[in-house]
Amino acid sequence: MSIPSETPRQQYQAWLDEQLEDYKAGLTRDELLDLAEVAVEQLFDAPDGQYPLTEILLCDSVDRLLFARLNLPTFRQWFRTCHIDTDERPLNETLAHLRAAG
Q1: Which of 21, 26, 36, 38 has its CA 20 to 30 A from that of 4?
Q2: Whether the Cβ atoms of residue 73 and residue 81 lie closer than 8 Å to each other
Q3: Does 80 reside within a domain?
Q4: What's the Cα-to-Cα distance from 100 to each of 2, 70, 96, rounded to whole Å?
Q5: pTM across the whole model
Q6: Residue 95 burial (CB count, 10 A)
Q7: Cα–Cα dist 26/89, whole Å
């Protein structure tokens, strides 16, 4: 029985999670707490009435802040650049290009 391969959306999500976690690993505790404070303020000001009641909601909010700060590509941009890549260009160089563009 063969192992089903990941869909492009799953590959993108794994890549995105890696980018965010690598960035967070480079921050100090104070920088992370400052980010969390901004995220909490945004949650309270959100028009949908979401409140930072859970750690998961706060983590997602911080990740959204970092996504914007790092100027990471959307799935569509990532898919065009990374998934439908040429054989001549290694994937790592493509990913480095996306990070440099941000």
Answers
A1: 21
A2: yes
A3: yes
A4: 37, 10, 6
A5: 0.63
A6: 16
A7: 28
- Helix H segments across 27-90? 29-45, 55-69, 75-78
Q: Per the structure, how many domains does the chain have?
A: 1
With cut-offs at 50, 70 and 90, classify the pLDDT of residue 58. Answer: confident
Q: Is 84 helix (H, G, I), strand (E, B) or coil?
A: coil
HSE-CB at 81 with a 13 A cutoff on CA atoms is 17
Q: Encoding tokens for residue 68?
A: 């914007």
Please give the Cα distance from 44 to 30 (Å, whole number): 21
Q: For residue 38, what are the domain limits?
A: 18-101
**For residues 47 and 97, what is the distance between their CA atoms, to the nearest angstrom?**
36
Residue with tokens 């909490």: 40
Structure tokens at 19: 């980018």
Tokens describing residue 42? 């945004």
**Is residue 69 situated within a structural domain?**
yes
**pLDDT tops 80 at residue 80:** yes
